[in-house]
Write a structure and sequence with these properties.
The protein is 45% helix and 18% strand. It contains 5 helices and 5 strands, in the order E-H-E-H-E-H-E-H-E-H.
Length: 126
């Protein structure tokens, strides 16, 4: 069973995604509401995939991506950014920091996000 970590401070969206991933697709779903607890969960739980918001209390999603690059035990952990920030420079920055994909919340339904998660988890490199 694949383990997914959702790092999202919006309670409604976080719970919606947890329900969607748990009920329909029997993923093991973990969640964190800020960057610090997200990083701790990554180290402790070793998820197969992280859905990461960028605007978080405390440290931002960009900071989380930088820390993932610095931490040997987290290197290579697949991260999909799921953010309201849709400017081209935000997208480029996120991808440069190691995200494997960037999804703007307003442009995707939970079903489309789920399809993306499945694509990432079934890639041969994973």
């Amino acid at each position: 069973m694949s383990k997914i970590l959702i790092v999202e401070d919006d309670k409604f969206l976080r719970e919606l995604m947890v329900r969607k991933l748990t009920s329909e697709h029997s993923f093991e779903v973990l969640s964190a509401m800020d960057g610090e607890s997200g990083l701790k969960a990554m180290k402790d739980q070793k998820p197969d995939l992280v859905l990461l918001d960028l605007i978080l209390p405390g440290i931002s999603g960009f900071d989380v991506l930088e820390k993932i690059k610095e931490e040997q035990c987290l290197t290579g952990m697949p991260v999909i950014i799921l953010s309201n920030l849709g400017q081209q420079d935000d997208v480029e920055k996120g991808m440069k920091l190691g995200a494997i994909d960037y999804m703007v919340k307003a442009h995707f339904t939970p079903n489309e996000i789920l399809v993306k998660i499945k694509q990432v988890l079934t890639r041969p490199s994973h």
